[in-house]
């Protein structure tokens, strides 16, 4: 099921109003079909981390596949008026939209890839009107899922192989936030979700325990555990903290004994408050001494990668982690600052003109061209990435310029193997790439992270992975900046 089917409607209007007003402008000025190139990229790794995990491409593909304006969409646009009461959109423009068929080339980095700031996650080339309309929906899909996949990867990394379950739907940013977060968390490495609709749509394993309300709806805690075990003799995980956690664990053990007499085993207990290190250590002792070494201890309660790491350092005996709010809302950084910038425009003579967005800050200046990312590896480890323009001839012995210090140059070509990260996804509007299934994407995340040295993976002050610009591209960019700045200055003087 794709995102358009999920909502059973056209998503052509899932864009900002200004994209449509600009689109009418391009149409009116005869520019609608002018070929353009845009790149979607972010400027900083989220969570002050050393890496990012790309996610969301499958939903982006579905959106592009179903990109067309329905009669309802056009009627809505027709009903809109400007400040003088005049129709905002002209008939001719609406007719143009009616006959619009997606015809762009799209290249993108597959989901589950380790990516870094300034690398295009997606590149789109085609009529500027289409590229423009797609800015906002592509950003909303890729920004959110990439953010959540990265958060989940960090949490899974901290859990060091323990099971991690996503419990976040109730705190997610609305129904689609919950679904997209379940998908992205799975890409990041989470093993299961409590979200049943995500299970149905994405085929993600579903898991769950029970809530405090179950315990509270019985007179006694032990009676509640027994009743649950009667209904689910082989799938019971008891929540032990409703009244007094250590007493709760005693009650769980008593019921586990009765279950064993009847031929079944308690699967686990869940701790949801209090000192999780102390209670898990005590709980483990009590369970082991009572003959239940295989009953696992699951912990939940506002957990994230930092708390998991701290609990592990404290010697907590926790086997599985239920993570909600902080993962699905990316609590400490609620948005990835991905942007979508025009990088080249085809001129009437067929030549590409490089386009660049100036900024006072050098890091915010976009890179022009038709960009690709070349990743160099050595001995099963990533060593550096180079952004180059396909418009410039890149010889095998390429040199890249250090991102922060242009006097430093490096060529990895001799000692390293390399691959180009962006792969063709659409050609002339036809899909030429099919997304792997979710388990394969999850496996890719794991394999990619294993190629990344621990210094880039640590949470505190991680090492910055080198992403350089290919030398000729760097020169072009610098020339263009100088040219644009001097034009600016000349205008000011005049
Ligand atoms: N040993 C520990 N070290 C660090 N943080 C912990 C430890 N144990 C629990 N925490 C975290 O401390 C925070 C507060 O937990 P605590 O149970 O005290 O409050 P609470 O959630 O308000 O409890 P309750 O659900 O009973 O109201 C939670 O994020 C929890 O995960
Ligand atoms: O803590 P999270 O990472 O978001 O994980 C999900 C939480 O949702 C549930 O309780 P809920 O928050 O509804 O109630 P509670 O805080 O009273 O336990 C569950 O018991 C977890 O604590
Ligand atoms: O199954 C659970 O234990 C669960 C599900 C959602 C949120 N909190 C807990």
Q: How far apart lie the N and C ends?
A: 59 Å
The coarse overall form would be globular
- On the 0-100 scale, what is the average pLDDT? 95
Question: Can you tell me the residue ranges where pLDDT is under 50 for at least 5 consecutive residues?
Answer: none
Give me the Rg, rounded.
27 Å
Output the CATH homologous superfamily of one domain: Aldolase class I
Bound heterogens, unique: adenosine-5'-triphosphate, 1-O-pyrophosphono-5-O-phosphono-alpha-D-ribofuranose, nicotinic acid
Structural class: alpha/beta
Helix content: 25-40%
CATH architecture of one domain: Alpha-Beta Barrel
Quote the CATH topology of one domain: TIM Barrel
Number of strands: 21
Strand percentage lies at 15-25%
Biggest β-sheet: strands ordered side by side in the sheet: 13-12-1-5-3-19-20
Give structural attributes.
single chain, 494 residues, alpha/beta, TIM Barrel, 6-stranded parallel beta sheet, 18 helices, binds adenosine-5'-triphosphate, binds 1-O-pyrophosphono-5-O-phosphono-alpha-D-ribofuranose, binds nicotinic acid
Explain what this protein looks like in three dimensions.
With 494 residues, the protein is an alpha/beta fold. Helices cover 39% and strands 18% of the residues. It has 18 helices and 21 strands. It has a 7-stranded antiparallel beta sheet. Strands 7-6-11-10-9-8 form a 6-stranded parallel beta sheet. It is globular. It binds adenosine-5'-triphosphate (ATP), 1-O-pyrophosphono-5-O-phosphono-alpha-D-ribofuranose and nicotinic acid. Adenosine-5'-triphosphate (ATP) is lined by residues 273-277, 301-303, 307, 310-311, 314. Belongs to the NAPRTase family.
